[in-house]
Amino acid sequence: MFKGVEADQAMNSDRQTPPRAFIFTFGCQMNEYDSDRMARILAERGFESTRDLKRADLIVLNTCSIREKAVQKVMSFLGRLRPLKEDRPSLIIVVTGCVAQQEGEKLLKQAPYLDLVLGTHALHRLPELLDWIMTDRRPVCHTDFEYHLPPPPPLTSGDVRVRAYLTVMQGCDNFCAYCVVPYVRGREISRPPEEILTEARDLVAHGVREIILLGQNVNSYGRGLEPPVTFADLLTRAADLPGLKRIRFTTSHPKDLSPGLISAMAELGPVCEHVHLPVQSGSSRILKAMSRGYTRADYLDRVEALRRACPDVALTTDIIVGFPGETEADFQESLDLVSRVRFDGMFSFKYSDRPITRAARFEPKVDETVKSRRLAELQALQKSITLELNQALIGQRVQVLVEGRGKRYPDQLTSRTRGNKVVNFNGPDELIGCLAYPLIVQAWPNSLVGLLPDAESDPAPRKAGRPSS
Ligand code: SF4
Q1: Burial class (CB in 10 A: 0-12, 13-18, 19+), 242
Q2: Which of 112, 154, 220, 409 is the most buried (most CB within 10 A)?
């Protein structure tokens, strides 16, 4: 096994300081969690983290292949690293994440100065593969799917923060026509609940007050586990953890939004009333072509059931415009669905082909200028709805969890409502990590401004009679 002291000697025999690792993360929350996991694994092996590329002994690029031109972005970043490697041959460069899984050996051919291509299931193998590279000095590609997720090492006291991600499952069995996830993250696999709860307890013990449970299809959590467990069961157990004020989860698939999960959201105090529920299109014809497994009517029914049980729920979504074959009538159905549901927020994208997906072969493709026009129209509609919903909060006191000082305005505290809206307000440092109830006095599309009448906090999460958010 790779030992920190040996690493130091091998990488920098002329100094006594620990080796330094630079981890750069592209993409989603799951990648952020994986980067955090690698940082902990490396810390356990004696690495310090650095944000200075030039001082790094190890550089890890944790990549994402969801967005367009993902491979080109990684290659361009690698090109910037080449001179560093030429100056210092002991530097180790690793590419991991979805691009590593998708491209495999090809990356080593295109960037011969790269040392390690590490697949999405192999993060726990990082130390032994580094050890191998340092003794053998030959590049390695490890992209096997292992279907076993060992727990990450425990947190160290330096990792304290208010909110944290916790991956409860990975992979996906849905094979939506446009998506690379099942190919680069593998088939769906859930972690045992005991392991998740142990990790959650560790996070709370280190000051975390809000946990965001992650999975590509998080609400199908539990399939294949013995004894059987559902996502609602997991939420129920997590909600009992002392000291944990809030739980969120993402991303939910509309077809797996079960009555049990809706009830859990309505009844469990720490579970926030926010669901990210990607609809992708308002047209049943396009949803079928996408292989989404629900119709427009199914989606609207689920939203209605959710709002009946949980009237305060904030809904956000993803929509793709210009999927192959999308007509003007299909697009109008997407606009109509957005107007009906009135989402609190939306991520919207122009469709573009992803290699290895079925949709890449679908015809007819929609013209780029048409896609751009549709995207602009959709975004303008959503922006006006978001602003209206935010403005409706002016004059209300909302429950927020205070996360820390704002990056742009450090004199203000930054916080989130239960519905995941950002609220900035003036207040003392003592409120960080606490629930507070500012009065909303201003609303923008991306944030709210609050006023704290008096410094107050509430350590107890509650459901009944909470201020709306
Ligand atoms: S459910 Fe989500 S992750 Fe799974 S294939 Fe569809 S879009 Fe991709």
Answers
A1: exposed
A2: 220
CB-CB contact of 182 with 355 (8 Å) = no
Q: What is the pLDDT of residues 399-456, one digit of tens each?
A: 999 999 998 889 999 999 999 999 999 999 999 999 999 999 999 999 999 999 764 4
The structure tokens 């004020």 sit at 245
Set out the domains of the chain in order of their start, with CATH numbers.
4-142 (3.40.50.12160), 154-272 (3.30.750.210), 282-292+309-389 (3.30.750.200), 392-469 (2.40.50.140)
| The predicted structure's pLDDT at residue 168 | 96
**Ligand 1 mean position, distance from CA 216 (Å):** 7
Q: Over 80: is that where the pLDDT of 356 sits?
A: yes
Distance of CA 217 to the CA centre of its chain: 12
User: Tokens in use for 268?
Assistant: 């469990």
CB of 170 closer than 6 angstroms to any ligand 1 atom: no
Q: ∠ CA(298), CA(419), CA(178), 5° rounding?
A: 45
- Taking only the tens place, the pLDDT of each residue in 73-110 is 999 999 999 999 999 999 999 999 999 999 999 999 99
Res. 459 pLDDT band, cuts 50 70 90: very low
* CA 30/CA 216 separation, integer angstroms: 8
Q: Residue 366's closest CA among 321, 322, 320, 319? A: 322
The pTM assigned to this predicted structure is 0.91
Query: Is 345's pLDDT higher than 50?
Result: yes
How many Å lie between the centroid of ligand 1 and the Cα of residue 174?
A: 6
Task: Tell the residue number behind the tokens 């996070």, with chain if given.
Answer: 203
Q: Is the CB of 176 under 6 A from ligand 1?
A: yes
238, 211 Cβ separation under 8 angstroms: yes
| Nearest-CA residue for atom 8 of ligand 1 | 179
Dihedral sign computed on CA atoms, order 154, 158, 159, 163: positive
Cβ–ligand 1 contact at 182 (below 6 Å): yes
How remote is the CA of residue 175 from the centroid of ligand 1, in Å? Answer: 6
* pLDDT at 127 (0 to 100): 94
pLDDT of residue 461: 39
Query: Which residues are within 8 A (CB) of 265 and not within 5 positions of it... i.e. 6 or more apart?
Result: 235, 271, 273, 275, 306, 309, 310, 313
Determine the straight-line distance between the first and last CA of the chain, rounded to whole angstroms: 50
Q: What is the largest CA-CA distance in the chain?
A: 68
d(CA 62, CA 76): 14
